[in-house]
Amino acid sequence: MMIWFIVSIIVILLNIPFGYWRENVKKFSLPWFLSVHLPVPIIIFLRLYFGLGWALFTFPILIGSYFAGQLLGARLHILWSKTMRVTGCLFYDIIRTRWVIIISR
Known about the structure:
Elements: H1 2-24, H2 30-37, H3 39-49, H4 58-83, H5 90-104
């Protein structure tokens, strides 16, 4: 049962940057499509790597984790866009804000 928790956390953390990117692009465009669908092969790989199988009860757990990560990333983009200028890349925005904090001290 612990493996489900670990994989769910990995799926959430994997999808946060994609949800962040998705919030910055036009809906139903190619970048939007990629931000929604690129994590799926990685999640399938995780299922196979950890030997989770394809039982029906596993789908709600991982689908819920997928959407939770996408939602968290989108909410983070919305929250940060109210206080600073943001791009579509979560990692770039984190590094840029950390450098601003370090330089301003």
